[in-house]
Amino acid sequence: xxxxxxxxxxxxxxxxxxxxxxxxxxxxxxxxxxxxxxxxxxxxxxxxxxxxxxxxxxxxxxxxxxxxxxxxxxxxxxxxxxxxxxxxxxxxxxxxxxxxxxxxxxxxxxxxxxxxxxxxxxxxxxxxxxxxxxxxxxxxxxxxxxxxxxxxxxxxxxxxxxxxxxxxxxxxxxxxxxxxxxxxxxxxxxxxxxxxxxxxxxxxxxxxxxxxxxxxxxxxxxxxxxxxxxxxxxxxxxxxxxxxxxxxxxxxxxxxxxxxxxxxxxxxxxxxxxxxxxxxxxxxxxxxxxxxxxxxxxxxxxxxxxxxxxxxxxxxxxxxxxxxxxxxxxxxxxxxxxxxxxxxxxxxxxxx
Length: 352
Hints:
single chain, TIM Barrel, 16 helices, 11 strands, 49% helix
């Protein structure tokens, strides 16, 4: 594998010195870019885009052609694992992902096949190795997965949910069934992320998108303990380099201390918590990633630069900060504005 020309993202995750704060954006390859929409139209639909290594590589690299980003992230979907488990993933226009089959009982959990990720999700690994090769060491490549709790919400509800009623009913009426499902998913995620690392991912992120809908004891029992298990099972070194991991729980600001104790190198922050407060609470134990509100990118250049400066001041001096949005970039953002944001991070962070 080619030597890494820009490794400040990996260095910041490991709290090593950097020249400027590294930056990437969740959903940086996506619908806000006209070139992405063109490639997606060529592919036919979203999953065809994910399953074609050349198209997945093309859209992963598109934002890097426009912006001075410090990392690329694999273009894929968080629901690849349940799809490979035979639940029949499909997308309804305007309604998001749905599954033809749901998991509602002990028998349903028992019927879920054990995955051979190298075979059942070979298209993801092909995309990882294709992208890593095309990057040529320009920046590191991030692999990712959904958290077991987040994957389970879709598998039990049958799609997106506003109130998570069905899975919460299971949590209280059949907790042992939910734990069996989460344990199975945790094992699948460990295998999936490790195969991504072997295929060329240089850091990995666990997206716990729906962890924030839980109460504190349930977050610990049904989400965090399974992410802790995943982090413990990850390959820690590959290609002669440490492979750092990030846990991102949306609306997880209440639980920063316990997330920081879960074993990952970095805690991802959404925009509902101030970064100075986060740093005060967990000190220098782990790196912090985040956490500008994606809506700031609707503002003008001065507004964007002002908010970048404020967050950098909030983090203060020293390494251990990866700048990011507090969630994915919105699909109707003017593509000129991320450039202002990314350039501002590099320019304004040098003094820290």
